[in-house]
Sequence to fold (202 residues):
Amino acid sequence: MARINLLPWRAERRKQRLQEFYSMLGIAAVLAVVISLAIVLYYNAKIDTQNDRNNYLQGQITQLDTQLKEIAELDKKKERLLRRKQVIEELQSSRSQMVHLFDEMARTITDGTQIMSIQQNGDELSIQGRAQSNARVSTYMRNLEASGWMTNPDLSIIEATGGEKGLPYQFNLKVTLKNPNAEAAADANGAATGAAGQGGKP
Fold:
């Protein structure tokens, strides 16, 4: 006996297409979820890598900051040591200079002249004294200029006070101190530098 399909073939075909559509829609949804998860995992991995780089760089920056602080402290220590060295060198230089200075003061004093006080302010020396006459003071100033350790004598006051019969004139003068040994060493260094510079030229 032959079977007869009483269902409309159009409805059956529509139902089949609808099932296929839902199947494709489900597959597309699953693929979308998988792709989204893959994208999220990829960018999370990139973010983690960048965070690791940032943490590494931050650690290096911290180390550099520490090293810069140590370098700054070393620079301060170096500056303090250089200042101490300079002070010591100045003291040594001034010590020898003062020995020569007092020797020159004794040598340059003329007869009929008496030194009452000496005051030093940096490279300037103030001298107060008494003299028999203006000529004695002029001679004393010439001796100071020729000493080599003092220069530019400047007489500020000379007056007859009558306080002491043999030395009636009181005077105040200033001289500039210099160190001929230091100047000679500087000239020698300059000459040596110039000779070395000329020797290097073809």
Summary: Residues 91-184 form a domain with the Gyrase A; domain 2 fold (CATH 3.30.1360.100). The first strand starts at residue 113 and ends at 121. The first helix runs from residue 9 to 108.
